[in-house]
């Protein structure tokens, strides 16, 4: 790659955020070097050298842009020609109302697109410590498993103790080992999602006695020992280990991942299951299924013993057992400016989970906007941030502290956050009537409010794209 360093953007880390950032920079006509330490140096969670490897779930969650904040974020990213969303859409597998992907096909699609782009150079090898001084435009997207030399350098530069939390991985089961004389295919409430049929999950029913025994086994099961430096690390509530949820109360799982609502067992349609374990397709071939919500820190032998007590999984063969890894993120409202630049050294911009967003789509979306910011900087321009009424803008508000003046003053702890409508500014006027003129009642008001916020978000994003970006909005 030719040209002075000042015209090159360096992206460190080729996970979802880094891959998306590199794509956006190159698409804007700016050369980019994408640095990835794998396979030279692997992490505790990754298994391949593929770019944008999914190490936890294969789900991008809801694809409902009208009623769900993450579905809205999907729609916004598609309008911004997101590589991550393009690869996800091309490699989707049935998952009810969710967008789930074949993880290997997804990674392969992202890797090929980045390898094939003439403005992208992929550099394999670890960036140890702070990037060289002549790298004037850098995006750090090294994720929750940032290597120690770089993490230590950032910590020293910011004079700020890194915050950290644990993220747990769910086990994956071979489809052929599931007993379908006990289990059955059905999506909750028969909901049809992207690429789905309304019968996209495998469901395993439990009686009260089976459920009580299962919860007791989870609590008593032998867990992974923490290293000394991990003992005070909290969990992120959106990804709690199954046994930690069980410890919070005997009914917790029945109101979480094992809720029995919206499902009818065709083998015994008149009997209502007390609890239901769901498995979601994990690859395009349909040969692998992950156990939904079953992130765990149980030891491997315990996982096999306890999970095989689930009806239908007595002879389950596991393609991957659950695990646990530590995530690290910055105190972003204090350390980063409104364009994700490190206040202590503005040539460094951060993206992805390091900034305090949580979730695949959220991480990729922050990589997307970081790439757009960096490309504008390389052209000597300043990009106006997306409106706070959009999913992307509201997530940036959470990360950079732009939302803080709207809530009560005082010191508060910054925590990782999934996109949700609670991050959006309130509507100036909430809807009160249906299209036919009748008054909205009860839950109808909540639904109408979300739909109005989504419609406003997409309209405002389209205007922002037309006014500030050199791309056309995609339908």
Automatic annotation (TrEMBL):
Keywords: Cytoplasm, FAD, Flavoprotein, Methyltransferase, NAD, NADP, Transferase, tRNA processing. Signal peptide: none annotated. It catalyses: uridine(54) in tRNA + (6R)-5,10-methylene-5,6,7,8-tetrahydrofolate + NADPH + H(+) = 5-methyluridine(54) in tRNA + (6S)-5,6,7,8-tetrahydrofolate + NADP(+); uridine(54) in tRNA + (6R)-5,10-methylene-5,6,7,8-tetrahydrofolate + NADH + H(+) = 5-methyluridine(54) in tRNA + (6S)-5,6,7,8-tetrahydrofolate + NAD(+). FAD binds at residues 13-18. GO terms for biological process: tRNA methylation; tRNA wobble uridine modification. GO terms for molecular function: flavin adenine dinucleotide binding; tRNA (uracil(54)-C5)-methyltransferase activity, 5,10-methylenetetrahydrofolate-dependent. It is an enzyme of class 2 (transferase). NAD-binding protein involved in the addition of a carboxymethylaminomethyl (cmnm) group at the wobble position (U34) of certain tRNAs, forming tRNA-cmnm(5)s(2)U34. Catalyzes the folate-dependent formation of 5-methyl-uridine at position 54 (M-5-U54) in all tRNAs. Belongs to the MnmG family. TrmFO subfamily. This is Methylenetetrahydrofolate--tRNA-(uracil-5-)-methyltransferase TrmFO. It comes from Bradyrhizobium ottawaense.
């Amino acid at each position: 790659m030719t040209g002075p360093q000042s015209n090159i953007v360096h992206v460190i880390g080729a996970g979802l955020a880094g891959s998306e950032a590199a794509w956006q920079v190159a698409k804007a006509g700016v050369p980019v070097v994408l640095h990835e330490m794998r396979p030279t140096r692997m992490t505790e969670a990754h298994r391949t050298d593929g770019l944008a490897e999914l190490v936890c779930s294969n789900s991008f969650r809801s694809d409902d842009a009208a009623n769900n904040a993450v579905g809205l974020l999907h729609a916004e990213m598609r309008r911004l020609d997101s590589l991550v969303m393009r690869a996800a859409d091309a490699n989707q597998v049935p998952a009810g109302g969710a967008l789930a992907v074949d993880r290997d096909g997804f990674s392969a699609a992202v890797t090929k697109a980045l390898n094939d782009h003439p403005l992208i150079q992929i550099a394999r090898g670890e960036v140890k410590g702070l990037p060289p001084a002549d790298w004037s435009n850098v995006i750090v997207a090294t994720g929750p498993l940032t290597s120690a030399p770089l993490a230590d350098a950032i910590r020293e530069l910011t004079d700020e103790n890194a915050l950290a939390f644990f993220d747990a991985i769910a086990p994956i089961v071979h489809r052929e080992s599931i007993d379908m004389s006990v289990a059955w295919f059905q999506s909750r409430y028969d909901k049809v999602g992207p690429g789905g049929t309304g019968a996209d999950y495998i469901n395993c029913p439990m009686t009260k006695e089976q459920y009580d025994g299962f919860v007791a086994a989870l609590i008593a099961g032998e867990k992974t020992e923490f290293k000394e430096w991990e003992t005070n690390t909290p969990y992120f509530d959106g990804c709690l280990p199954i046994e930690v949820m069980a410890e919070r109360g005997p009914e917790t799982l029945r109101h979480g991942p094992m809720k029995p609502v919206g499902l009818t067992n065709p083998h015994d349609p008149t009997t209502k299951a007390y609890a239901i374990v769901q498995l979601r397709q994990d690859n395009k071939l349909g040969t692998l299924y992950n156990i939904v919500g079953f992130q765990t820190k149980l030891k491997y032998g315990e996982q096999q013993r306890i999970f095989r007590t689930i009806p239908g999984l007595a002879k389950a063969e596991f393609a991957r057992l659950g695990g646990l890894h530590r995530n690290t993120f910055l105190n972003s409202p204090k350390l980063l400016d409104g364009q994700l630049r490190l206040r202590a050294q503005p040539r460094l911009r951060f993206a992805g989970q390091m900034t305090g967003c949580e979730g695949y789509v959220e991480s990729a979306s922050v990589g997307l906007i970081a790439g757009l910011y960096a490309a504008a900087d390389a052209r000597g321009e300043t990009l106006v941030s997306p409106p706070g009424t959009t999913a992307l803008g509201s997530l940036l508000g959470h990360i950079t502290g732009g939302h803080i003046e709207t809530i009560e003053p005082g010191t508060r702890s910054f925590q990782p956050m999934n996109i949700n409508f609670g991050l959006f500014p309130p509507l100036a006027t909430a809807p009160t009537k249906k299209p036919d003129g009748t008054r909205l009642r009860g839950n109808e008001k909540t639904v109408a409010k979300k739909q109005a916020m989504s419609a406003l978000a997409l309209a405002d994003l389209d205007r922002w794209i037309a006014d500030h970006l050199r791309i056309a909005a995609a339908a």
